[in-house]
Design brief:
Largest sheet: none
Distance between the termini: 35 Å
Number of strands: 0
Bound molecules: zinc ion
Structural class: mainly alpha
Helix content: 55-70%
Strand content: under 5%
Number of helices: 5
Shape: elongated
Order of helices and strands: HHHHH
Number of domains: 1
Radius of gyration: 19 Å
Length: 143
């Protein structure tokens, strides 16, 4: 057996939702700003772009799913709360705001949540773990 210790999918998804690294749970994962990304996790040194085709596409799909879910939820809630006299234009304005807020505000989370799915489907290889550890060690020695 390998020495890979990996958390379960719920833990990793939760980490992703809070913009943490799916692998180590480090705060902020590989984000240096809300939109700015570094090559590696700030905590464990894990290189998140893993030469697997389609990671960006998966993150974009995750953003669409999160935004679409928030739009459906807010629209449904608005209709349920105001039925039978649903205020169409105010509701459209609110749902539009939710879409912008989740679509833009959820940008880093779409990456970290997708990373959780990605790491779950393709657990870190021993080389990746060694590479991450080497990078994390180099970083701690530099400071
Ligand atoms: Zn990490």
């Amino acid at each position: 057996m390998s020495e890979r210790t990996q958390k379960g999918l719920p833990t990793m998804l939760l980490r992703g939702l809070f913009r943490r690294c799916a692998h180590c749970g480090g705060r902020g994962a590989f984000f240096t700003g809300w939109f700015a990304r570094a090559d590696r996790c700030k905590t464990c040194g894990f290189k998140w772009q893993r030469d697997l085709v389609g990671f960006q596409l998966g993150a974009a799909a995750m953003n669409i799913i999160m935004t679409g879910g928030a739009v459906l939820f807010s629209m449904g809630l608005g209709v349920i709360l105001t039925y039978p006299e649903v205020p169409t234009w105010p509701l459209i304005a609110i749902v539009g705001s939710v879409a912008l807020l989740v679509g833009i505000g959820g940008f880093p989370m779409s990456y970290t949540v997708w990373l959780a799915v990605d790491v779950r489907m393709h657990p870190l290889e021993p080389e990746e773990l060694a590479d991450a550890a080497a990078h994390a060690n180099a970083k701690t020695q530099a400071h």
